[in-house]
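Hey, does this match?
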Amino acid sequence: MSTFWIILAIIMILVGLLGSVVPGLAGPPFSWLGLLFVNFSNAVDYSLTFILITAAVAAIITVMDYVIPSLSTKHHGGSKAGVWGCNIGLVISIVGLPFGPTGLLGVVLWPFVGALVGELLSGKQKREALRAAWGAFLGFLAGTGLKLAYGIFAAIFVIKGLF
């Protein structure tokens, strides 16, 4: 039975790492499941505190992945219209549209386009609108970096526990 949990943990870690960069897969929750499943094996014995803290961090990172682009848009001079545009772009990238890019390109492009359009519609000059849209892109990169860091952290703990 221990082998089953170890194999499942490795699969979850791989899906978690993949989900850190592929849209539609929530990487941190899968990575956390890898930590949980390896804990069910005889290989490691993580404390309940460790499991709960890593679960909370995975949940926070997953939520922040959707919040950071908006915050970054605002930080880069975006107005409420730009932040709304960024959020609408995020929803479009998740739900998809019958036209335009989807997948990784869509997740990068739609919040950028949304922030840009929102800023232009609010009367901002092109340069200011592009700066806010750039903030949306930087926010996407920051969220991806956080997810990837968590996935690597979880992978290290699983590998360390197995060897």
Observations:
- The radius of gyration is 19 Å.
- Residues 126-162 form the longest helix (37 residues).
- The CA atoms of residues 54 and 107 lie 26 Å apart.
- The mean pLDDT is 87.
